[in-house]
Each structure stands twice: as structure tokens, then as C-alpha cells.
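Exam review. A common question shows you a sequence with its C-alpha cells and asks you to describe the fold in words. Practice with the pair below. Do the first one on your own.
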Amino acid sequence: MNDAPSTQIIEPFRIKVVEPLPFTTRAQRAEFLALAHHNVFLLRGSQVTMDLLTDSGTGAMSAAQWGAMMTGDETYAGSESFFELQRVVQDLTGMPFVIPTHQGRAAEHILFAAAGVQGRMVLANNHFDTTRANVEYLSGQAIDLVIAQGRDPQSEHPFKGNIDLEQLEAHLKQHGASVLMVLLTVTNNAGGGQPVSLENIRGAAALARAYGVPIFLDAARFAENAWMIKQREPGQSARTAREIASEMFGLVDGMVMSCKKDGLVNIGGLLCLRDPQLAERARTLLILTEGFPTYGGLAGRDLAALAVGLTEVTDEDYLRYRIASVAYLFRALDKIGMPLMRPAGGHAVYIDARKLYPHIKPHQLPGIALVNELYLEAGVRGVEVGTLMFGRAGAGEAPDPSAPLDLVRLAFPRRTYTQSHVDWLIDVLASVHARRAQACGYKILHQAEVLRAFTAHLAPLAHPGTPGDAHVFPGK
């Protein structure tokens, strides 16, 4: 890291390729949103100026990754790109069985099916939406046991992603063989991108082994979690993020990973295991649904890019910049009074929409209200992490909240936006905050039985106001 004194965040890279941003008027955005049934998932990419819907597969790859793609081995069986990826993953995780998939949810489905989740429980800090859906689709039960501070947006606990060890032991003791596995999501996406401490992973692993239950990581953001352990956990500051990550993996029996996050690639997933029998069953399902075990639904060039990405992601200059950028936005929004999930997480800032809009009841989807206000204001797309995402079909009619929290996540693609983008976003959010009393709730017109947030059709309970563009774009 450059040791020149500065209080400014500097991106630890040069920009080599650029992509133009789409600019629209408010009238156009209102029309686009109506055609998308007021669900930003249904917008087209060309209708979005700054896309913070997800950090999954939306980041920029490095020159080294693009170079690796040019030499990727497209052999169907026995691709050399797979063996290089396997070497990198085994070195990082210590897990002998490396099974690539086309993305994380495929790895989840194969794991739960091969392990036999039907009629059994998965105990987690928090399941994210696709993880929960895969458990429940296969007739299992997804149980969330995050610590109490993790359900309190205002708590400043440094590791709000921790699983409650007392509750974990109580469930293991009470349910015994009915528990299939313990699963720790690092960082805890459903709970505000909050990290899990190394002490907590150690404690959960010890309990799982005492009761004869395997423990897994949902490791989509393992490097960001390791960096926050280095920054926040006593006794860890002298270690590298990679050393901490390797210990995290060394404590567990396996992991699933959407590599579209901390793999720094646009597509890909991993299932890594220590148990040879479970690995054999998983590979059988992989061949049935994804492809041969040495490509797992990915092109050889994707495997090659992932091998490089898993090395680059633990670079500490990158991690320092990544976490500092999110913290910078957090501090600016906190200063204007925006209610936030505290403290700042790793990959995103989470806004407490329920607190921002106290006049909108939880079943009227305050998170959707904020997401749509952001899009109408300036073409910024975020995502609701609340009652629409985690509620049940039909729950939109209920008078009671269907999710513990109604958050809006602004997830930052890796190595994609610059400091000036963040400063512009702060102005946009300040304007939305100033007009918070004018926001309206939404109702559900149509929903799928599973993962309804992706495709639901919604309608405003009252027509939003139509002020002029507060954010003027170049040439508009």
C-alpha cells in the first residue's frame, strides 16, 4: 500500500475499459417502472443508471483474469483449467473435493439433496433467500439462530452475523438426528452484511462436532468476512486476511459458494467437501443437472478466471478499499439522518426502510417503497431485503409483519464504481430522505409460490408525486 498521507479513498487499480451509463428522465423512469409492474427486478439493464441491485456477478474482472480466459482449456472432461482451479481452492480451503457449479444456488441444491435434507433441519445464523428456498423446496426446515443483536438495526455489535451458540446447542440437544447440518453465512447477507467472528465459528464448530453434526460455510463473501475479523476481532490484526480465511475453512466440513461475489467473476459456484461419500453423491447429481465434474456447468475460460479471482480477492489493498468505500457511504448517510443497519457491513449499505417510513406498515412493503423511490429519483436500483423477499405467498394481506426487518440493500459491484459515483449517490439518497413523508406503500397483485420477490407484480397504494428531476444528467 502507498504510504503517502491522505484521508481520501483511492481505488487500487487503473481503469482500462469503460462502459457508458444509461441516462433517463423521471418521466421515462416512471413509465419503465409501471411496465415492470413496480418491481425493479423486471427492469431492463438499459433502464438503470447505477445498479446496486446485487454484487453477484456484476463486478469488473482484472487484466490477469481476462488474460487467463484467453488460455482457458475447453476440454469437456479433464480440463486443465479445472485442475488449476482445484489447486487454488485446495490451497485456500484445505478441502480435498472441489466441485464447480454454474452458480451458488446450484451448489446449495446439490448439497442439500445429496446430504438428504428432507424432513430434517438446517441451523444457520441466517439463510439468504435462495438458500432457504432450496432447503424448503427439498422438504427440509431452515432455522435462523442469529444473535439478538443481529435483529436490532441500531446495535453496534461488531459481529452481528454471529450464530447464537446457546440457541444452537439447545436445538442440537433437543432435535438430535433431525439436524442435518449447521450452516454459517459469512458475511451474513440477510442480516445487513454483518460479519461472523472467528471465535463464533470456532464455537459453532465445536458444538456441531460434539453433537455429531457437520458444519458448513456459505462462503460467498469469505474474504470480506476475513478482513473484518482482522479489523474488529481482538488478537487478529497481525494476521493476513488469507490466513484468517484459511482458518475459517479449516474449522468446517465443507462450503458452498456463489463465486460471483468474492470469486470476482461474472458466473460460477463451488461446493467443497471433506467427506468422500458425500462428494460422490454430489458429483452424481452434478452430472445429472450441471455437467461433468471437471467443468460443472462452466466454460473452461470461466474456471480459469475464477482461479485468478480467488487469489486476487484476498489482496489487502483491494479489501481495504472495498470495505472503506462502503463505510464512506455509511458515514455520509448516517450524517443526514438516514436510518441504517449498524455498523457498516462489507459489501453493502442497508437502509432501515421500516424506520424511514413509519407511516407505511410492514405488510405495505416499506422496503419496496424505498427501492422504487430511489429508482424514480435517479435511476438507482437497490433491492428489498424484507417482507416481500422473506414473506410467504399471501402474507402481503396480513396485518402483521412477515419478516423481522424491512431493509433495502445497496450492494456494490466489485471494482466497478468510483468515488465520484458514491458522492453522486449520496446526493440522490439525501433527496429521497428529504421527501420521505411523501412515499407510499405497495400491494401485491401477483406472486410466485417460491422466491416471489424476483417476479412479483406490485401496485402503489397511492400514486407517488411527480416532482421534476432533482438530479440532472449530462445532456438532459
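Now try the second one, then compare your answer with the model answer below.
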Amino acid sequence: MKKRSILRFIGLCMAGVMALVSLNGCGGTVSQSGETGSGMASSEGMGNKTDSSGGGTLEPYTINWYMPSSGEPADIDKINAKATEMLKDLNITLNLNFIDWGSYEQKMQNSIASNEKVDLMWTSSWLANVYDYTRQGAFLDISDLAPKYAPDMAATLKGEFWDGTVLNGGHYAVPVNKEKSAQKGWLFNKKMIDEYGLDVSKVKSAEDITPLLEKIKAADPTLTPVEMTSGNSIPAQQWPIVNNYCVLLPNDDAYTLYIDNPEWQSLVKLMRQWYQAGYIKQDAVTNTDYTAEEKAGRIFMVETTLKPGKAEEYSGSIGVDFVQVPYTPTYISTADMFGSMNAIPASCENPERVLMFMNRLYSDKALVNLLVYGIEGTHYTKVSDNIIDFAAGTDDGAKSGYNPGDNWMVGDQFLDYLLKSEDPEKWDKFKAFNDEGVAVRDFGFVFDASAVKNELAACENVRAAYENAIQFGAVDPDTAIPEYRNKLMEAGVQKVIDETNRQYAEFKSSK
């Protein structure tokens, strides 16, 4: 975990908040029990597929599932066909749709608002915002349906993941079973480390990276080594961000305006230096996709959320070796519990059937690995029972026809095969990593923006005009920050902060 540094949160966590405010509803009739008006198919006049929940025979049903990706894989039709074959006992046809990262947010907003047939969609606390979709009534509460139609899923997630992802008293999205804890850090290009003789083991802060960037730029002036987008930025430290404008400060148990924080101001001044030195792309404010540069090996560093094996997983998805370096302790935040989920829209024609499919994602190892790695012998080869390698001649999967890098978006990640390049003890280390996490101070707090939606809409317009330009170093922060602050105040940000602290006080008193 869609985990969240100050700048990562700023750019991605709430990128869709205001757009969702305008959603007009999602259609579909949902009873108080949570079942749609169509319900389960009756046994009369239907196909001969047996309903595994004991409800009779099943009519044919197509599931449209949407996930973000770097692009649609060439062999997506082969994967859908193979998955459909594996799901024939459920009479389900799978239609898996990969939408590029830059378009996913808008695509799903439009699809949900227009009642397009979306049966399942990936969502999170940082993209396709699960909190706001839920508050707008876009997602279905599956609390009662899940135990009946997805018992393996419910059993797998029982405990922290299931209990810790309740919104508005219900379960509106299902977490991927993966790491619960998080740790902020960087991924560094291993080839560049070796080629330029760099020591990343001593990197503890963004300031420590500057000499490394200087050396790379001097050796190859054509490189802009820092990947800087709204989703991958350089943080000062780990702060909980609730609604884009408020931050829970380390030594003060209250939310305040983040741009008033001296550490943030120092950070953006450093980013200004990097921008002027050519370490950050001159079009970083509008550039949302670095995939080509990553795969070409022309990116030195990416800020991200770490977990055991993150570098190997990332390397496998793009075909370039990276190493990981942490800069925060291991922690557990509310946002990370909601960091990667899948939800059934309220307009879904048959949520029971979708849940039956989802159940397989937490119990069927063959199906999970098909969706993650593709077809054995075509996209990968078996090295041993649980170890695989990319097919020969595919450049670490880049040319195999299917390598979406969606491991952390599909069901139970502990069912995934391990790549030959990965640590064979990866899943044991995942479990230890989860046990090490310490909950952040405001763990469990979810902000309800409904009382200040107009102010947030106005603040979002201001944010769009100033924030990325400041945090990417494209403008002088000494001039831009005071202007940004004044505009936010005029837009009503103080009311947003006051409402956040009011809710936080109630949350604390109720614990």
C-alpha cells in the first residue's frame, strides 16, 4: 500500500475527492439486506452450472473487472479466455480491464457515474479513493453477503484486515491480503549504483541523496534521474494526511495546515534546487508517466512504500534491477489498511456472483497466478513447485505479452508464486513485517468530508494551481508558498482544519 509520505499523500491520496463530490449516484436497486433487485439467478430456465453456495443452477454471467496498470498487456485476451475456462463451474466469463495509471481515476469516476457495467473495481486510500466512493453510495456493502458467497475470502481476511477496513459501519471494499505494515523509503537503480560507484546504504534523508544526483548528472547530463510525479515524491518524514490540507504533527496531537510546517518548507526548497540542477524533469508538473524511462533504465530513484521484496517485485515488473533503502520505522496506518482493495459497485447486476468469483481469488492458487503472471509455458516457466522464471527471451517478462505487475491488487498475495530472483523466504518475512508494525497515533480515524465539501472543492481548485509546481521545484517556494497559503485561506481551509480536529477529538474520546 495504492504507503503515505507527505508528498505522496498530497499528490495521490485525495486526488479524486472533489471530482467524486459531483457524482449523481450509481444506479441499481439495493435492498436493506444488501442484495440487488435481481438477486441470484433462479434454477428455472438457466444453465447447468451448480451454484457452490447451494442456491441452484447459475446463468451465464460476465464480470467486468477494472484495475490500473502501465498499459493493457498484449495477451489480455488469452488471459481472459484462460480464466473463463477455469471459472466454467461458476459459469463466469471474465473481462479483465487494465487502465493506464494516469487515466484510471477519471475513467472510473465516469464509468460509475454513468452506470456503465462495472462489476468489480480496484480502489484504495490513495487512488480511486475508497472513502469518497463509499460516502457517495458508489460501493455496495457486502457485510452480509460475503460470508455466504465468499467464505474462503472471509476466513482469510478474518481479523485486522477485515475488522480494520470498516467504513460507515459496513464492508464496502475488500482488502488484498498482503502486508499490513508499511515503511517509507526509496528504490535505487542498481546498475547506476554500480556504474557510478554510489553508496546508498548511508542515505537517511532527501539531503543525503543530493551528492549522488550530482555525480550521476555530471557523468551523463542527458539524464533526469529523479522520478517525480504526484504519486512518487520525496518526503521529509512520515505524517498522517487526512484530507490534503491537514497534518497530524509529531509533537502536537492536532491537525494543522501542512504548508506551515518548517520541515515541509525546507523540503520543497531542496526540490527547487534539484529542479534547477536538472535532476527533475522540467515538465514534471504535467508528466504523469515515467514507464518508458523506467524500462529504459534512465531513472535512478523512486520514492515509494516498502515491504519485504519490494525492490525485487518492482524490478520484475519493469525489467530493471532496483534496490530498496528505508527511511522510516515500520508502522501501521489507516490509509495502509485501505491501501489496495477491490469493491463491487452498487449498480452491479449480480454481486453474489462477483463474490463467488472473488472467493476464488483467496483460495484458488492457479487462478491467482494466472492473473498475476499469465500462462505457464507462455509467459513464465516453473523452476520448482513455487518458484518461477519469466519465459526465455522475454527480457524479464517485458516482452512476454503479459506482465501487468498487479501482484498486490489480486486477492491473497500469499498464494503468489515467487520469481527466481526473489527471496524464497519472502512470505515468511511478510508475516514478520506485519508483526513489527506499530500503529500511528491516529490509527482508525477516517475523516468525513461531507460537512465541508464546498470548502474542499474550493481548496482543491487552489491546490491544483499551486501544489505540484511547488513540490516539484518548478517555482520559487519563497514566493509561491505565501500565495498558496492566502488562496487556501480564502477558499475556507481553516473550516476544513477545524472540522477535522472536531472529528478527531470525537474519535479519540470514543476509543
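Model answer, second protein: Confidence is low (pLDDT under 50) at residues 1-48. The CA atoms of residues 176 and 410 lie 6 Å apart. Full marks require stating both points clearly.
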